Amino acid sequence: MQLGILSPTYQFSQIILESTTSKEDVIKYYSSFSDFIASDFIPNILFIDDALIVFETIKKEIRSVRKKSSEVKLVAISESNDIDYADALEEIGFNAFLLNNDFFIKRLKKCLNSMRHNFFQLNASTEINDIIKGDSEEIKKVFEIIKKASTTKINVNITGETGTGKELVAQAIHKQSTRNQNPFIAVNIAAIPKDLIESELFGHEEGAFTGATKRRLGKFEEAKHGTLFLDEIGELSLDLQTKLLRVLQENEVTRIGSNEVIKTDIRLVTATHKNLRNEVFENKFREDLYYRLLGLPLKIPPLRERKGDIIKLAELFIEEACNYNKITPIKKLHADAQRKLLSYHFPGNVRQLKSLIELSVIISDYTTIKAGDLLIENEEIEDISLKKERTLEEYNIEIIEYFLKKYKGKVNFVSDKLDMSKSKIYKLIQEKKLSKY
Ligand SMILES: Nc1ncnc2c1ncn2[C@@H]1O[C@H](COP(=O)(O)OP(=O)(O)OP(=O)(O)O)[C@@H](O)[C@H]1O
C-alpha cells in the first residue's frame, strides 16, 4: 500500500514506519500540502498532522488532494480530543481521525490494518463475486441473499462455522449497499476483554472510569451512516444484551459517563457460530434481542458442503501466495493434491484451506503442488465409504486408497494392515491409477 505523510516534522513518518506491518508499504513524507500536490506519488492513505490544518484554507487543500486522487483515504492526526473538531474534519472530507495520545501507536496499527484490509479486499471491487470467491450452487444462494439484504436497511444475522467467510459476507453486504461510502466497522466481541466491551461499543467520557484518560468514541458512533459488524454476538453478556437492545430500539447511544444522547444511524450485521436459538432456550441470550438481530438470516454452508468451491478457492490462494512471495510461474495444483483437498472435511473451512495452500506454495519444490505438500494436521481423511452405493471392488479400491494416503504411499504398511499382497496392491495402483498420497 502507498502511504503519504503530511507533517511539518519528521516524527510522524518515524512512528508510521514503526507501525506498518507490511514490507510492501511505500511511505513518502511531505512537509506541506504544496510539496505533496507537486509530487507524482499517489497514496492510498494520506496521514495529515493537524498542525497543517488551517480551517480557512483546508477545504481548498483537500479539494486539490482529491483532484490528485479521488480514492485517497484521509486520516487526521490530532492531539485534540474535541469531538466537534473531529466532526468538522469529517464534514470536510476526512475518512478517519486519530487521537495522538498514549494509545496512538495501537490505534494507528488498527487503523492501518483495517484500511489495508479494506483496500485489498473491499475497495478492490464492489462486485460480490470479486469479494467472495466461489461458484458452487450453495455459494450462489448466499450471493442472492446478499443482494436482497443490500437493497434494504434490514439487519442481517450471519451464521456459519469458523472460517466460512462471515466477515467477508458482511463486507460484501456493506459494499453493495448505498452506505458503501461510509465506514464498515467490524468488532469481534469474543476478542475484547469483557470489562472493555461496553466502552468499545458505546464509547466513554474522560474520567468515566479508572483508566479513561480521554474521551473515546464507541463503535456505534464510528460506524455513523455505515455498517457495524458485530462478530461472535453470542458472547455478549446478558447485561450488555439489555443495553444493546435499548440502543437498537431507540437508535440512540450514550457514552459511559455522559448524559448526552447521540443519534445512531447504522446497519447492523451480526454473526455467530453458535446456535442463538438454543442460547435463547438456555436463557443465555435474550429472546427480544434475538428477534431484533435476526432480521434476515444468512447461513454460510461449511466448505465440505460446497466442494464445488474447493479447487477454485485453492487456485486463487495459490495465485495470491505466489504473487505475494514473488514466485513465478504461478504453481499448479497436481491432480493428486486436488483429490486430497476434495476428500478432506476442513473443520477450519476457507481459513484453513487458505493457510494450507499458503504453506504448500512455500514448501513445494518446482512448479507443482503435490498431495504430499498439503500438510493436513492429523491427516483426517473424510469417511465417505458408506455414503454412496458402490460395488465391492469399488469399496476395495477406496479402502486401499484410504490406507495408502494414511501411510503416505508405503505399500508394505498397507499390505500388512489389509492382509493383502504387495504385488496385488501395486497391480491395482497401476491398473486403477490409484492415488498413493
Ligand atoms: N469465499 C471466499 N473467497 C475468498 N476468501 C475467502 C472466502 N471465504 C473466506 N475467505 C477468507 O478466509 C478467511 C476467513 O474468513 P472470515 O474471517 O470472513 O471468516 P469468519 O467466518 O468470519 O471466521 P470466524 O468465525 O473465525 O470469525 C479470510 O482470510 C477470508 O478472506
Automatic annotation (TrEMBL):
Keywords for the protein's UniProt record, in alphabetical order: ATP-binding, Nucleotide-binding
Domain of life: Bacteria
The keyword Nucleotide-binding is assigned to this record: yes
One matching Pfam family: Sigma54_activat
Residue ranges of every copy of the Sigma-54 factor interaction domain listed in the record: 132-362
CDD domains: AAA
Listed Gene3D superfamilies: 1.10.8.60, P-loop containing nucleotide triphosphate hydrolases
Name of this protein: Sigma-54 dependent transcriptional regulator
Organism: Flammeovirga kamogawensis
